[in-house]
Design brief:
By secondary structure, the chain is an alpha/beta fold. The protein has helices spanning 2-29, 57-64, 79-88, 120-126, 204-218, 241-244, 268-292, 318-321, 336-339, 366-374, 388-392, 456-469; strands spanning 32-38, 67-73, 130-136, 155-159, 172-175, 178-181, 224-229, 299-305, 343-346, 355-362, 403-407, 413-418, 421-426, 437-440. Helix 5 runs parallel beside helix 7.
Length: 480
């Protein structure tokens, strides 16, 4: 009887300690982390989110082997501020970069981040991670002390300037704060007049993929953090012939022949689909490399887009592709089509496969999530909440009281989501105290019916959130 009781006691003690041991093991593992970011990819542009025209088998497979989120949001409705929230864990009411803004007329590069800004790369680097960004930065230049190497990255290859990234055949790319010429590509300078040349010799996306694969091989001993910031499918619509052939002639086309800035294209629909499929192919190459190197089970991989699909412009046809699904609006809108993103996470053996999560989250949650998983310290002045409990199937997931966005171009706009409620205030600079539009996303995910008049108390609550979330910014243009 004593032996039986002793065995029972030991069993109970082991069971009680199992969860803490598992949690401690997660922090001890220090997994490799890869965050893949597409550029202007809509919520509905992947097969696993409903796309039927362009093929994305590798990303669909990643979703099937991991967790797919249905209520996750970009940091902003345009590029630079969205990337700033991802790097800093702060929403747009507190972020150091709150809109796209050039350094000056004709100058390469965007407005820098404020000195002293803390990024996820810096935090992971302090715990022993090798860090790299391959792709588009958009948050400043070396001369402003705001390049990736100034904010915690050991290596960068790709575009520093979002304007230069409008062509996939640039005359050069940046490697660790130095220009690296690309012989055979046409000349281009941001701010120049005239149409971008439709092609060249060296396709920037391919060069960046090759660099990322090389870097992973070199850092296979880990742990490493790779921020893979693709420029696909942002305009211009440019893709090599070996990808275009798969889609050319499949659909009726309206050739783009009169672009005032982006490259002209005789098969814009085929080009758009081909670009996305080429990116998907290269995600597959990366995943295959992880398996080849024996790193698959030790690597946490995310995929998202920096904002919604672009409005019909310069050959883009989001209506044909249903790029934003049934969501209202496009890039530069704070309606769902401008800010909701496909969001996928995969970590074999840690994240259960085939899971769909309705958790409401946003880019500023990424920093605390990666820090918790890597065992890094989390700054106290951020807006994000770790979603590690959701990813790893643990209890204790904290929820946001609300999510907040602001946009300073086009007259200014603000938006909040709290529970199933979504509020949008447009023309903020003209009417800063107007009652916001109000939508119930549970019954109206397409935001077709403004019900603020029916629920004035809820709309007023949203207005209070908007007022509380916005703090004065160091850049005067980003203050309402």
């Amino acid at each position: 009887m004593k032996a039986t009781n002793t065995s029972l006691l030991i069993s109970l003690l082991l069971a009680a300690s199992a969860v803490p041991v598992a949690r401690a093991a997660v922090a001890a593992v220090k997994p490799n982390i890869i965050f893949i970011l597409a550029d202007d990819l809509g919520y509905g542009d992947l097969g696993c989110y409903g796309q039927t025209r362009s093929k994305t088998p590798n990303l669909d497979g990643m979703a099937a082997e991991g967790m797919r989120f249905t209520n996750f949001y970009c940091g902003s409705t345009v590029c630079a501020p969205s990337r700033c929230t991802l790097m800093t864990g702060k929403h747009l009411g507190h972020a150091t970069v709150r809109d796209n803004m050039q350094r000056g007329p004709g100058l390469e590069g965007q407005h820098p981040m404020q000195p002293g800004t803390v990024t996820v790369a810096q935090l992971l680097k302090r715990t022993g991670y090798a860090t790299a960004i391959v792709g588009k930065w958009g948050l400043g230049m070396p001369e402003d002390h705001s390049s990736p190497l100034d904010f915690g990255f050991d290596h960068h290859y790709g575009y520093l300037c979002q304007g230069m990234a409008h062509t996939y055949y640039p005359p050069y790319l940046w490697r660790d704060n130095r220009k690296e010429l690309l012989p055979g590509n046409p000349p281009y300078r941001y701010g120049q007049r005239g149409v971008i040349q439709p092609s060249g010799k060296l396709y920037s996306h391919d060069l960046m993929v090759d660099d990322s694969l090389r870097w992973v091989r070199e850092h296979r001993q880990g742990p490493f953090f790779l921020y893979l910031a693709f420029t696909i499918p942002h305009l211009s619509l440019q893709v090599p012939e070996d990808s275009l052939t798969e889609y050319r002639g499949r659909w009726p086309e309206r050739p783009l022949t009169n672009s005032k800035h982006y490259a002209n294209n005789n098969s814009p629909r085929a080009a758009y689909a081909a670009m996305i499929t080429r990116m998907d192919r290269d995600v597959g190459r990366l995943m295959a490399l992880l398996k080849q190197l024996g790193l698959d089970d030790d690597t946490l991989v995310f995929f998202a887009s920096d904002n919604g699909a672009v409005f019909p412009y310069a050959g883009a046809d989001p209506q044909f592709f249903h790029s934003n699904g049934n969501l209202r609006g496009y890039k530069q809108d704070l309606y769902e089509g401008g800010i909701r993103t496909p969001f996928i996470a995969r970590w074999p053996g840690r994240i259960r496969s085939g899971v769909t999560s309705p958790l409401i989250g946003a880019f500023w949650d990424v920093l605390p999530t990666l820090c918790e998983i890597a065992g890094a310290a989390v700054p106290k002045d951020i807006d994000g909440l770790s979603i590690a409990p959701t990813l790893l199937g643990r209890p204790g997931q904290k929820l946001h009281e609300y999510l907040y966005w602001e946009y300073h171009s086009g007259g200014g706009a603000q938006a909040v989501r709290f529970g199933d409620w979504k509020a949008v205030r447009n023309h903020v600079k003209r009417s800063p105290n107007s009652l916001p539009e109000l939508y119930d996303l549970a019954s109206d995910p397409s935001e077709t019916t403004n019900i603020a008049a029916r629920h004035p108390e809820v709309a007023a609550r949203a207005a209070r959130y908007m007022k509380a979330a916005h703090r004065p910014c160091w850049e005067p243009k980003w203050n309402f």
